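Title: Comparing notes on inverse folding

I've been comparing how different people in this forum approach sequence design from structure. To keep things fair, I'm posting one structure and asking everyone to reply with a full sequence. Here's the target:
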């Protein structure tokens, strides 16, 4: 559920900014390209090699530089390794890797070729996030397999910072970062995240960098807090921040009794996102703001449900208010925007809906 929530958010926000990625590629290609690279079979082969080579260094730096790791760490939170793990991509990560891929149109590869190859590249990497396929020794000499990429997602010491390639393994072999699977990997972070919170998963490492930056003395130390290695991050910072911002997870061995409520919310988000994607160009600003707000609040709500947070009840009110305000706006009745608030306040006072909600929806089972 956590993996899918992050994937939904990335797809949603990228609808608003993906076009700017493509415009940037065309801007660089039209005004600054070094070579005029033609389109033929050999060039397509060269492009796929270059795409994976750029990915290798983007990916490696994403593990070796704090600022980049803050965007990429979300992809490694999951202690499972399956297709939903591939969805753990944040918009921050999408923006950073777009910056790296700008080198392709800069060299002279046409943006339409680059965009096509990035789609192929992304599709291939999706299928390497699974345990359904075991080791394929002969294939691993050239291609990244689920076993090879599973090693990259492992928290075992011997597997750390290995296998950065996305399609091909020869970059890792060339630069000394290849590791084949020996013992079965233990997936996730070396210091697991103690939260399913949608917001905390996205921003916790930025908080850690900021805390380290405040503690650091002198320009060099502050610079390394942002651009140094995650291996040198003070490991006492995250527990301190978790104590400051997160509740005590005393219910870690319990599950929601009404899990279907959670599943229904995610299903609604996926439905909204699908319709939103296909009709994005025809929608008004108000439509887009409504869908964006509704889905993001629902995703935050889902994370709160996974953690059994009692305050999610107020998010339910926020969602209702967003829906009613949108329909009032559509019917030119925005002058009555306070009416839904008044009705909700009266209903809460008369029927104690908050207590009923917590007693029913937040019931736990061992």
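Reply #1:
Here's my take.
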């Amino acid at each position: 559920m956590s993996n899918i929530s992050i994937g939904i958010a990335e797809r949603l926000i990228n609808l608003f900014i993906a076009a700017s990625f493509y415009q940037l590629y065309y801007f660089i290609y039209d005004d600054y390209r070094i070579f005029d690279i033609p389109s033929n079979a050999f060039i397509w082969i060269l492009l796929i090699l270059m795409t994976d080579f750029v990915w290798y260094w983007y990916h490696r730096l994403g593990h070796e530089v704090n600022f980049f790791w803050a965007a990429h760490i979300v992809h490694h939170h999951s202690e499972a390794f399956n297709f939903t793990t591939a969805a753990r991509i944040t918009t921050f990560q999408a923006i950073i890797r777009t910056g790296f891929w700008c080198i392709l149109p800069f060299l002279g590869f046409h943006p339409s070729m680059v965009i096509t190859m990035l789609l192929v590249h992304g599709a291939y990497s999706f299928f390497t996030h699974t345990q359904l396929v075991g080791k394929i020794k002969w294939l691993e000499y050239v291609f990244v397999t689920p076993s090879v990429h599973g090693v990259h997602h492992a928290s075992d010491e011997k597997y750390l910072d290995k296998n950065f390639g996305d399609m091909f393994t020869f970059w890792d072999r060339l630069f000394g970062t290849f590791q084949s699977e020996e013992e079965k990997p233990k997936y996730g972070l070396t210091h697991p995240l103690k939260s399913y919170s949608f917001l905390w998963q996205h921003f916790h490492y930025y908080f850690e960098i900021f805390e380290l930056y405040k503690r650091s003395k002198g320009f060099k130390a502050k610079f390394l807090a942002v651009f140094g290695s995650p291996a040198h991050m003070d490991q006492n910072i995250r527990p301190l921040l978790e104590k400051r911002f997160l509740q005590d997870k005393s219910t870690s061995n319990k599950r929601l009794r009404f899990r279907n409520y959670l599943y229904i919310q995610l299903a609604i988000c996926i439905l909204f996102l699908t319709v939103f994607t296909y009709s994005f160009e025809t929608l008004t600003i108000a439509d887009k703001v409504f869908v964006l707000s509704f889905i993001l609040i629902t995703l935050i709500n889902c994370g709160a449900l996974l953690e059994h947070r009692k305050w999610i009840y107020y998010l339910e009110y926020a969602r209702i208010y967003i829906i009613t305000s949108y329909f009032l706006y559509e019917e030119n009745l925005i002058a009555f925007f306070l009416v839904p608030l008044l009705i909700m306040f009266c209903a809460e006072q008369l029927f104690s809906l908050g207590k009923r909600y917590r007693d029913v929806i937040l019931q736990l089972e061992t």
